[in-house]
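#onboarding

Welcome to the new folks! Below is a worked example of what a typical request in this channel looks like: someone posts a single protein sequence, and someone else replies with the predicted structure as tokens. Don't worry about understanding the tokens yet, we'll cover that in week two.

Example request:
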Amino acid sequence: MRHITFIILFLTFSISFSQENITLIYLDDSYRENRSKIEDKIKELISESEKIIFLSTNRNDSIILSNKMKIREELDNIVFSKPKPLSHKKQIEKINNYFNDNDNIFFKSLKNENDDILKTKINFHFLFDEDNFVGQYKNNNLIEKILLINRLMHFSENDSNNRDLESNCKVTLHIRNVEEDDFGDTYNKEDVISYIEETKTNKIFNLKYY
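Example response:
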């Protein structure tokens, strides 16, 4: 099974994470085709934010940047760089270590003292291509685990077979169409939709193609 590295961009209007909305962008780095399109999508997503916190985690190290210009300068190298293999388990560990670092306490600082309700909105953006999203079971192996561990997703009170997101959490899946001349081309849009329905997240995750 192929493993991947990952890149997360933390975009916020306030470095303190206390008042304004926060956007988190996850880039799946296991594909190689049409990367300029991927780079354009990331630029589009970050363009609406004034201040950025960037976290890049791979097999060797973690890098945190908060300068928008610096991220733009590094984006080309990030998108076109050779991936360093990292399992889903290790990715989740690194993400949660960052979220719960003693000097950061990411989600704890976003929640009210007396309950688990987020006091600010968090928007997750996950970028995949069709083949890796379906073929590597990204919903099951990565997205749901990140959300469940951090109490941002739970089983629906009205239907135990379905899931709900925390009221101030939003998840958008940005899926890149794999062209016929790309390497692979195993799955298509119908497969993506079917997989989301199977994982009971079609009603709570927004699906966008690019």
